[in-house]
Each structure stands twice: as structure tokens, then as C-alpha cells.
Amino acid sequence: MTPFLRSMFVVARRDFLAIVATPTFLLFLLAPLFMVAMTLAGGMGASQLADSARGAGRIVAIADAADVEALRAADRRLRDAFRRGEAPPPLEFRVAAPDAPDPIAITREKGTDTYAVMSGPLESPRIVERNAEGSAGRYLALLANQALRDRAAGDVVPVKPRFESIQRGGTSIAVQQSLGFGAVFIIFLLTLLLAGQTVSSLAEEKGNKVIEILAAAVPLESVFLGKLLGMLGVAVLFIAFWMIVAIGGGLVAATQMDPAAIAAAGKAGKATAALASMPATGWPFFLGIGFAYFILSFLLLGAVFLGVGAQAGSVREIQMLSLPITIFQVGMFSLSAAAASAPGSSLATFAQIFPFSSPLAMAARAASDDAKAVHLLALGWQAIWVALVIFLSVRLFRSGVLSSGSGWKFWRREKRG
Amino acid sequence: MSDFSVEANGLTKYFGDYKAVDHVSLAVPTGSIYGVLGPNGAGKTTSLRMTLGIIDPDEGSSRLLGGHKPQSVRNRIGYLPEERGLYPGMKAREAIAFMGALRGLDWSEGRRRAAGFMTELGLERVIDEKIRKMSKGMAQMIQLIGSIVHAPDLIVLDEPFSGLDPVNQERLEMLVRRERDRGATILFSTHVMAHAERLCDRIAIIARSARRFEGTVDEARALLPMQVRYTPRTAGAPAAVAANLPAGADLRGDAWHFAIQDADVEPLLARITASGHGVTGLSISRPGLHDAFVHIVRQVDAGFDADATEDAVEEASA
């Protein structure tokens, strides 16, 4: 091992142990539990709200007794084409009679939202609707139209469709793109949660003056890289912990569940459909390269934050820096997300080349493009940028904080002359 | 192998427009104990930092351990910075091993030596204690051990004695001598003359950013004339006694105090013997390093004050 790597690992080891061997680290490690609990609570509340709101709506048709059956049959047929949740509100019938309430009066009935009311003859119905942009009124008109056609056509033999899945033939582009987006999102989230800490990691050494011991004993580059590596170790430990928890949880759940239920869920479940579909480069490669891109994304952003944080003089400055840093990360995320949803576009190419969005965008590309060699190129390109950022950070740190500007701040030199 | 462990030439450093160090040169013979003395803010620390390559000089160069660039011989150097710092959460033994590991020492060997050093320095109680629980002086001793645990060839200590109680100062002197006997070269800065006088083979005095003196302690002391303290046997007639003494002799109590050039010692003795006033007390000695140091620094300051006055006059006349 070269002295450079050796001292880098000494620094990384110190940082890793200093972070991991504290009670606070447990809190950090378990923090996602709070997030999961919050998400569950929020999600349950939201879905309950949606359910209760959906149950309350209706549409109403006031029709002659003779037409009701035809309308009901048309409604049953048309409704079949909608997915659950997108179907129009339930249809209620009123038989037209001289003393029947006025459509406007029906819309005012308490206890339920009435989106549209159709009255009058089927040929020229009067439709009162709540929302001119909504589909409820047009759906009622379509029903009337269908009922009239049925009557005119007489008995038609019902169509007997045979459904076949096209999934065998390959994964749909939409699923691949959403896989790509998922990869971008997961890498982004993990980097956001974990890399931001690097911004304050040199503050410790500056605060307790150890920086001079480090600067005297080892090259600053290996201090910076070592700190980055230590934080990466913490991040990987964090991810590994939750992976094991997730896999363990999955196994426990599998043994608790009825095999038949799993089989049934396996046929219908959306998640299993996504699992059954393939990223363009195949699952093992996709996961592996995704992890590699996470590491580089962490190193790249971490190096930037470390360099920026090293310039900060106080804890307050570091706190102020966290906002622009988060915005920078979100910017990289939006860029890569846009690229993931438009593979092959020039925006995607830009996001793949621009060093700080490159890991995210390239992970997305692995989902939709089966070329593998390009990833090697991308990893090399990103690694070069990690080195470059570290190099620049160290120069800035030496000239600024250690006030050792040997010609780097050339303007100062000219001023003196 | 060069005869000098440190060869720094013309080190110059600006902080903004202020010239913190002005062409300071240091040549530390291998195997010696070398002191860099100077008042507070004279530029000692900056000079040492440049010598070690922690900061880059604006002008000049530094070569260590036989013509090497400072960065290329890091593992053969031990350094105690002026601003002491350790990770408060680390245990003493780990902190020492960590500092050794930074300089290329094996972790386990570092821990072993840490225990040895600490036991020897009377710190065995706190070997596995965290730094934050220690007193400032204890932490400083830990850091000192950390900077020599890898048995470096060159040891640079910036104000090592400040903040230590007399017992620990004594231990530190012992440690410094032992490291020298091991073959190491020691370069340290201080503004406490007593340590320098006892320890140093050679010294450099830095004042107002520049090196004002370089040589042995005795050479520094020789800058001032010898001081004589003379008590005549006959108490009366001070005027008669004074006639035999150089002009400016000062009577304090029974004793006369005055300075004398080296060449005038024997004639003085002859005059005193011949005068018949007798001798109950006579001492002729060099002033201490303390006086020499104050003398040099005052001279420099006086020069600066003169400059400042001239500047003021020029400005006023302009």
C-alpha cells in the first residue's frame, strides 16, 4: 500500500469509528423508521379521505320507465372499460313522472354530491352538470347515445374477446423508464440523506485544531479523501443495515403468509409485475451498476460539500450552506429525472455527461439502454471529477484556510507587487 | 548524509501586506537541540510551519534530513503544533497510536509504545481515559508523546513548555535530552529562556519577523559585557573606591555593580588589589541568556521605533 493510501485509510478509519461508536449513530441509523411511520400515517389518512369523498358522489338519470333498462345495460357495459378509481360516479335512476323533482332540485339533495343530472327524452336530453370541464355530463350523454343505438340495432351477439399479455415479448418502455426514474430517485434520496453530512466533517478538525497535526503529517488530499471514505463507509453501513432489515422482513413475511395468497398476489400484484419486467441491462448488472453509481454520486457531491464546508469558518456558516447544497442536489435530481423520462434526448445526453448529474442519469440509462461498455466510461469520467474536485478543494483550503497561497491567488500577489 | 537536519533558506511569508516572516534562515546540525527564541508574534510559528512545509513560503525554501523536500520525509518528522489539538472522544492510547499511524507507524506498535511512554511519564492512570476528561496539561503531554511515538529523526516542538507545570516541564526536558541521545535532532521554539539555556546547543533569535541572532547560548551571552559585583572591605569613602572602578559603577547597598569588557578584567583585579580597600565579595560573570535576549529584542525594537520616528518626521514634512 502506498503511503498516500495508507494515511487515507488511517483518516477514514478514525472518522468511521468516531461516527459509528456513538449513541447518536443509533438514532441516525433508525431515523428511517420515523419516516416510514410518518408515511404510513399520512398515506392512511389520505387514502381514507379519498375513499370517503369518492363514496359520496353520484350521477342521476331521469328517464322513462321503458328507457331505464337500456341505460342500465349500457352503463354496465361502458363501466367495464374503466379502471377502478377512474370510473364515473355510481348512476342512479329516477322514473320520469309529472310530479318528479326538478333536476336542479335533485342536485341540491343533501347527503351526497351530485355531479350531473340528465332528464328529458333520450334524443335530446337536458344535462345539468356541476363542472363543465368534468366528464360526468358527457358520460350521461354517451349513455343516452348507446341506449338509442342498442334499440336501433336490435340484438347483437356479444363480442367474446380473448386477452393475451404482451409482457413475454419484452418489457415495455414505460416500465423501463419508471425503473430508471426509480433508480434516480433512490440514489438521490440516499445521497441527500447521507452525503450532506460531509459538509461539516472538516469543521471538527478545524474546531479542535487537529487539522494542523493532519496537515503536518499527511498530504491534505489524503485527509479529504479519507474523510470522504469514512463517510462513505457510514453510508454503506446504513444501506447494508436497511437492506438486511428489508430482506429479513420480507422472509419473515413470506413464511407467515399463506402460499396460496402469495401465488394470487403474484399474479395480480403491480410490484411483482415490475419485478418480472427487466431493465434493459438485466437485473444483476442494473443493481450492481446502480450501487456503483450511488458510490460515485456520493463521492462527487460529498467532495463538493466537503470542499465548500472546509471554507466555512464557523458552524453558523455551515448551517447557512446547507440550503444551497440541498437545492443543488434537488437540481441534479430534477435534471436526471427529466433525462430518465426522455431517454436518448439531448437533455438526457447532457445530464449523462454533466459530472454531478452523471451518476443519476447513467443509472437511469442502465434501465432503458442495454449498452454496457458506456458505463465503464461514465464511471471513469466521474472518478476523474472526484479527483478534480478534491484537488481543487485542497488548493482552496491551503490557500484560504491555511493561508498558504503560493501563487494560487495570483491577484493578491500582483497587488502586493 | 548532510550535517544539517534542517536547512531553511530565506523563508519569507506575507499575510496580506504584512511581512510575517522576513528571510529567516535556519541551519540545524544533525543530532543537536536547537532553540528558536523570540517574543510573542515574532514569526516563530510561521517559520516552523514553513520549515515543515505545512504552509508554503512566498520566498525561500526548506530542505530537511539531508536535502529532502519536507513532504517527502513526513514519516521521519515529529511535530507538536502550537495550537494543541486532539480528538476529545479518543482514548489517550488510541490518540497516540492514531498520530503514529498518520506518520506510518503500525497501529498495534503505536498502542504498545503509547503505554510505555505514558507509564514512564507518570500518566499510566489515564492510558484508557478519553481526552476530554483530561486536564489541559495532561492532554498536552499525550500530544507530545503522539508526536514522537514513531521515533522520528527530526522533532519539531512549537512552544512545548507552555501550559505545563514545573514537574512536567522537567519531564519534558528529560524526554528531549533522551530523544537527542537516541540520535534525533530537536528543534523547538520558546520564549522561556531558562529551558533554552539548559537544553539548547544552538539558538536563533527571531524578532520583528527576522532572524536577529544565530549561535550558541554562550555566544549570545557574550554579546553583553561581563557584569561585576564588588564589595570592598572598607565601608567608608565610596568616592575613593569609585576612582578605581570604571565610570558608571553603581553602589547598591555595600556592593558596586558595573559592566566590564573582557580585556579589562586583569587590570581591574590589579587595581582593586593595589587600592587597599580590600575584597569581601567579588563576582565577575556573563549575564544570562535572558538578559542577552532582552538586549537583542530591545535593540531591534529601538531600531524600529527610530524608523517609525523618521517615517513620522518624513510624513510631517511632506
How is the topology of this model organized?
The complex is a heterodimer of chains A (417) and B (318).
Chain A lengths: L2 H18 L2 H34 E7 L1 H15 L11 E5 L7 H5 L5 E7 L6 E4 L6 H18 L19 H23 L5 H8 L1 H8 L2 H37 L2 H10 L1 H7 L6 H29 L3 H27 L4 H8 L4 H11 L4 H28 L9 H7 L1
Parallel strand pairs in A: 1-2, 1-3
Antiparallel strand pairs in A: 3-4
Helix pairs in contact in A: 1-9, 3-5, 6-12, 6-13, 6-15, 9-12, 9-16, 12-13, 12-15, 12-16, 13-14, 13-15, 14-15, 15-16
Chain B lengths: L3 E12 L2 E12 L3 E5 L6 H8 L7 E6 L12 E4 L11 H11 L4 H14 L15 H13 L5 E5 L7 H17 L2 E6 L2 H7 L2 E6 L2 E6 L1 H5 L4 E6 L6 H7 L5 E3 L2 E6 L4 H11 L5 E5 L3 H29 L1
Parallel strand pairs in B: 3-7, 3-8, 5-6, 6-7
Antiparallel strand pairs in B: 1-2, 1-4, 8-9, 10-12, 10-13, 11-12
Task: Determine the number of helices of chain A (DSSP H or I, runs of at least 4 residues).
Answer: 17
Radius of gyration of chain B: 24 Å
- The assigned CATH architecture of the largest domain in chain B is 3-Layer(aba) Sandwich
What is the name of the CATH topology of the largest domain in chain B?
Rossmann fold
Instruction: Please give the domain count of chain A.
Output: 2
Task: State the total count of DSSP E strands of chain B.
Answer: 13
* Portion in helices of chain B: 25-40%
User: Would you identify the regions of chain B where 5 or more consecutive residues have pLDDT less than 50?
Assistant: none
The structure class of chain B reads: alpha/beta
Strand content of chain B: 25-35%
Which sheet architecture does the biggest sheet of chain A show? 4 strands, mixed
How would you state the average pLDDT of chain A, rounded?
81
Average residue pLDDT of chain B: 87
Oligomer: heterodimer
Helix content of chain A: over 70%
CATH superfamily of the largest domain in chain B: P-loop containing nucleotide triphosphate hydrolases
Bulk shape of chain A:
elongated
The secondary-structure class of chain A comes to mainly alpha
Sheet-strand content of chain A, in percent, reads 5-15%
Please give the alpha-carbon distance between the first and last residues of chain B.
Answer: 57 Å
Number of DSSP E strands of chain A: 4
